[in-house]
Amino acid sequence: MSRSLCLTRQCLGLVTRIECIIRPLAGDNGRWTLLCAAGMSGAQPSAIRAQGPFHGPFVAEDVLEAIAESLFVQGYIECSEPPIWRVHLQAELRRVNGERYSLPGAFQRHPETDGQS
To answer: What pairs with residue 117 in β-bridges?
Structure first.
């Protein structure tokens, strides 16, 4: 499966759109995230979500595939149009990466010493 997906569904004259991408998290630690944006086609996304972290891209791809299968059952179809919400998803990735490194203990540049050195 691809690391990106765009689906649409038409209902009552409105087109709902969902775009998903899989991206590595900062830190080069082998963790990946799945980012999804949803909303009305031709407008700004009304929801943006991140799932993960996943240990490797293939785990994230399996989750994306399961989501896609569920959405296909609900009447969504693959969209051949180019993605329109990449900038929104990139901003969410920056936010997720920022949260990961602002948490206490998430990343230490200088390990604490016991005061003896």
So the answer is: none
